[in-house]
Amino acid sequence: MRCVVYTGAGGNEVVTCEERPDPVVGDEEVLIHAAFAGLNGADVSQRKGQYPAPPGWPSDVPGLEVAGVIDAVGSKVRGWKIGDRAYGLVGGGGLADRVVVHERCIVHVPAQLDAREIAAIPEVFITAHDAVATQAGLRPGDTLLVHGASGGVGSAAVQIGVAMGARVLGVSRHEAGRAAVTSFGAEAVAADGWAEQVLALTGGRGADVILELVGSPNFADDIAVLARRGRIAIVGIGAGHKTELSLRDLMSKRGSIFGTTLRARPLEEKADAIQRFHHELGGHFTSGRLRPVIDRSFPWIEAASALAHMEGSGKVGKVLLDFAS
Ligand SMILES: NC(=O)c1ccc[n+]([C@@H]2O[C@H](COP(=O)([O-])OP(=O)(O)OC[C@H]3O[C@@H](n4cnc5c(N)ncnc54)[C@H](OP(=O)(O)O)[C@@H]3O)[C@@H](O)[C@H]2O)c1
Fold it and tell me: Which of 69, 203, 267, 301 is least surrounded by CB atoms within 10 angstroms?
């Protein structure tokens, strides 16, 4: 297989691109031949030594997701055959063109989406759906506020909120990001003075669900714009993870805060998140209500540049590695 390898912890000097023997499937696993691989913030954190792979996953090949065509199946696999197209989640090893994944952690791929498009789905859409719908209980008619709305998870969350019948407000620091939010059928909010804009747009009522993808700088105002019995989902903390919090304000709103991660979940919990997304919303890729959003693809041997781009500002949607060309 061709894969991205971290030779240690640090900056992009630890990133190499290697050829290694293909991984071997276990009894309940399949081997996926991937033409593209999705990058995530976690890959950057892992490179810095801040987010090691969970036990049982490759420690030096990063990557949280996989999409492609099944090349081999384990002896106890019942639901899949060679040649099926699938996407899903792994705990590591995803930045490669051959990836082993448990058969319950993948789902069938919408037929009309190509290899590049399916690679932009799993991690961001499943993370957004799990946080906003499964855990925060977003309902039709609710107001959903998404921070970092033009990034990978944010652009998925905005679309999911709209598809679920919520009113969605998406915060972005740049014009292209706000244009994307509007194109998804949501209302764009500029990052400067976002709290005042949210209160003005909602007549002072605020948001029922807030998806926090940026971190602690937003937190005091998240509580200020939380509607009664609102829920704040902490999913991304790239801009900071420590904050002061007024328990009185949270209590008077009868508000809830929860944090969540996908990567280190036990198999059954991870499989549940994937299958729920597929059953509840997967059909929207066929109807066109949901669409993968791709910022840019890099040849796989330019993984270091792709990671640098991932760390930068101004993206709209996913960054991919291209193993096909
Ligand atoms: N908990 C989990 O299971 C889980 C799963 C997936 C992702 N995540 C985390 O969730 C976050 C979002 O992931 P992603 O894949 O969507 O990343 P991404 O594509 O890089 O998007 C990040 C977004 O946050 C915005 N942003 C970053 N720093 C900001 C700041 N200081 N102030 C305002 N906006 C800022 C960016 O806007 P600009 O373009 O203006 O910079 C961008 O829209 C990351 O921290 C990631 O690690 C967590």
Answer: 203
